[in-house]
Amino acid sequence: MDIAAYLNALAGLFVIIDPIGAALIFHSLVPPGESRHRRIMAFKAITISVVLLIVFGNYGQPLLELLGINIQSLRIAGGLLLFYTAFNMVTEEIEYSTADKKKDISVFPMSIPLLAGPGSLTLSILLFSKSAEMSADIGVMAAILTVCLLTLILMLVSKYLKKIIGQTGDEILKRFLGVILAALAIQFVYDGIANIAG
């Protein structure tokens, strides 16, 4: 496994998926006291997200080529999209509301758009397209599994996480991660323009 590819993918995916923020949103969407429903929704959401990120990451580029879209164009568009996401993370107000009835939240909003949304899917394609060797691909897959496993654990303990972090802690973390994501987004745009020009 390529450790550099793993760490690069881990940093990018951690920032854009935001396991702590996702767990706090998950907590607000599941009615209190529904521990079995909570476990089912958490496992289902993570399974769907892992499959989407790995499959789309591996086969998204050939699909784009079939449509006549250059990977560098995707790099630039993905960078702009990630920057928009980062901008919203830094400037948007965070709203919390508590759910009062059971419903299936695994696909929407947990998997799409929170965990495997446009930003993380684009990042997944870019990471897999950047990796030239099998060891790098394994590193990216390991990073996806690591971040998703961490998110699953935090979802399952979100009741306690909410007490520890609270709204203020989540807001600080979200805005800080937004700044990191903005820098990553600019790097994608720069790489795309440099590769087209070169």
Topology:
Blueprint: H1 3-17, H2 19-29, H3 35-66, H4 71-91, H5 106-115, H6 118-130, H7 134-156, H8 158-197
Helix pairs in contact: 1-6, 1-7, 2-7, 2-8, 3-5, 3-6, 3-7, 4-6, 4-8
Strand share of the residues? under 5%
Rg calculated over all Cα atoms: 17 Å
Shape: globular
Structural class: mainly alpha
Q: Which range best describes the helical content: under 10%, 10-25%, 25-40%, 40-55%, 55-70% or over 70%?
A: over 70%
What is the β-strand count? Answer: 0
Distance between the termini: 30 Å
What oligomeric arrangement do these chains adopt?
A: single chain
Helix-strand pattern? HHHHHHHH
- Number of spatially distinct domains: 1
Number of helices: 8
> Uncertain regions: pLDDT < 50 for 5+ in a row?
none
* Main sheet: strands, sense, barrel: none
Question: What is the averaged pLDDT score?
Answer: 84
Q: Please, could you describe this protein's structure?
A:
Keywords: Cell membrane, Membrane, Transmembrane, Transmembrane helix. Belongs to the UPF0056 (MarC) family. The protein is mainly alpha-helical. It has one domain (3-197). It contains eight helices and no strands. The model has no long low-confidence stretch (mean pLDDT 84). The protein has helices at residues 3-17, 19-29, 35-66, 71-91, 106-115, 118-130, 134-156, 158-197. The longest helix is centred in the last third of the chain and has 40 residues, at 158-197.
